[in-house]
């Protein structure tokens, strides 16, 4: 028989695992946390809710990996804005069929990643119910520069870059990826990032968020898109390129810079991971895919589509 779930026992355990903050705040233990915003930096706020059966499945995911992913996707959002993480609030809806060790395992995965990225867990809420595991994280960060990076800063002629390799995230990568917080920091120290987004729904979907907000278009070189070795042709009718364009949950950075800064990045990559120039921003709205044989096709918004009736593949 599953032992009874005691909320305050879990909260006390979480409090013991999280070191005292070295910053000016009041964390776990009161009705609210207290923060002192920085006067010379923008405050960045984001939240994501992850649900068992939609964003992860137990198994093959472990409770630790589910908790890790819940924080990691929020860190990825901060990276996309050129931000530095500060603290986070965590809310859990725990299955009543699971015991306290399950809850601790979920939180341990999150705590380990929080310590790696120097994030203070400062509060939240816990409940149990008859449904599956649901985790919500609200993260707080600050812009690394005087202003954060948005999706709306691209202009015609800008070069388009992507970090890492794309596709095949379903093969565990969506649970174990490294949020590109440090990479965004290094890039911002090397060049002026004009627009940026993290690739969560797929390159062919997330690119259009930049294009729409900046009111521009793009031409993409198909041969330059970095395809991950994770991509396997489980479905012969789907090419490796299509996987890289639309699989989603790569959590790499897609960003634009001026041609001058682009040349600088090509000649000297400031990152320890792959950095690829995949195309340019154009005046004409829409996106065109240039193929190695000289042909051109319209790039469609393929990837994950979010709706109130559930996520679905939009191919």
TrEMBL record:
It catalyses: thiamine phosphate + ATP = thiamine diphosphate + ADP. Mg(2+) 5 binds at residue 201. It comes from the Bacteria. It is an enzyme of class 2 (transferase). Mg(2+) 1 binds at residues 47-48, 125. Its EC number is 2.7.4.16. Residues 174-289 form the PurM-like C-terminal domain. One of its GO terms (biological process) is thiamine biosynthetic process. ATP binds at residues 124-125, 151, 200. The keyword ATP-binding applies. Catalyzes the ATP-dependent phosphorylation of thiamine-monophosphate (TMP) to form thiamine-pyrophosphate (TPP), the active form of vitamin B1. NCBIfam families: thiL. This is Thiamine-monophosphate kinase. It comes from Gimesia aquarii.
